[in-house]
Design a protein that fits this description.
Elements: E1 8-12, H1 16-27, E2 32-33, E3 50-53, E4 64-69, E5 83-85, H2 89-95, E6 102-109, E7 115-120, E8 126-131
Parallel strand pairs: 1-4, 5-8
Antiparallel strand pairs: 2-3, 3-4, 6-7, 7-8
InterPro entries: Anthracycline_SecMetBiosynth, Glyas_Bleomycin-R_OHBP_Dase, Glyas_Fos-R_dOase_dom, VOC_core
Protein name: VOC family protein
Organism: Candidatus Thiothrix singaporensis
């Protein structure tokens, strides 16, 4: 297995507009529509699937990912936990309640590996926030 093995992540949602507003508010960023691949240009994703991609670049480490809305795939209650890297995870965690989510566990230390906070988005998905300070 290669180091940093996660190459992509997806966060499934039921209400794309609500989820987009939440993540853009918490992370102070803009999510962009991810169009179908060039091989299916001009077509929509099968089953009305929608994808909004988080900002990404090819020349940095870490995994890229997107919010996904797809019929038959419910949000929340899954066993995958995505951690977003932050300068100070308490900053993003503090934005969660005002953005419609809720905090599960406030920022706490994890020894030499920094700090994390665990939060829920508007769709019932838990995710982590990680920082070294």
């Amino acid at each position: 297995m290669k180091p940093n093995p996660v190459g992509w992540f997806e966060i499934y949602v039921q209400d794309m507009a609500r989820a987009q507003a939440f993540y853009e508010s918490v992370f102070q960023t803009t999510l962009d529509k991810l169009p179908p691949s060039a091989s299916s240009e001009g077509q929509e994703y099968a089953g009305g699937m929608q994808m909004l991609v988080f900002p990404m670049t090819q020349d940095h480490y870490g995994a890229a990912g997107a919010l996904v809305q797809m019929e038959g795939v419910p949000s929340g209650g899954n066993s995958t936990l995505v951690y977003f890297s932050c300068v100070d995870c308490a900053v993003e965690a503090a934005r969660v309640p005002g953005s419609g989510g809720r905090i599960f566990k406030e920022k706490f230390p994890i020894g030499e590996h920094g700090h994390i906070a665990l939060v829920f988005d508007t769709e019932g998905n838990m995710f982590g926030l990680h920082s070294m300070q």
